[in-house]
Amino acid sequence: xxxxxxxLLMLRSDIIEHGRKIEYKINxxxxxxxxxxxxxxxxxxxxxxxxxxxxxxxxKQSLDSVNEDYRRAVDxxxxxxxxxxxxxxxxxxxxxxxxxxxxxxxxxxxYFLSSxxxxxxxxxxxxxxxxxxxxxxxxxxxxxxxxxxxxKPGQNxxxxxxxxxERSR
Length: 169
Known about the structure:
This protein has helices spanning about 1-45, 50-140, and strands at about 140-145, 150, 160-165. It is mainly α.
């Protein structure tokens, strides 16, 4: 996505640069045409005044037509560059929104996974504690009598075992 945005930005700058070159060429041609027209006017005025006035009028009309054509071309190119700029900005905004959504989704996923992992870790610790208690029980000389463990040494319960004392909490 980042490469697409870079490509669009490069395209935008290329279009702007191309528009500037066209504008420069148009201005250069306009100046060249204006200079040529002035030289032509003076030559005609020098030969025949009356004919020069008619030719001068025709040359002005011709230049106005050319200027109008060039102005339209520049306006069209300016509009195209502005449209390309708007498109690039829309792509940038869309990319930003997409990245924001992806970041929010990743944060939510990380939160969910971390809380799930913490629960599983606590559950695993309980199982590990239970395994240790079961190992201790099987390795000892004890058995369950009632809701407590009975162990051998101590007060006789009739079979040589006594109940373990309650744990103080």
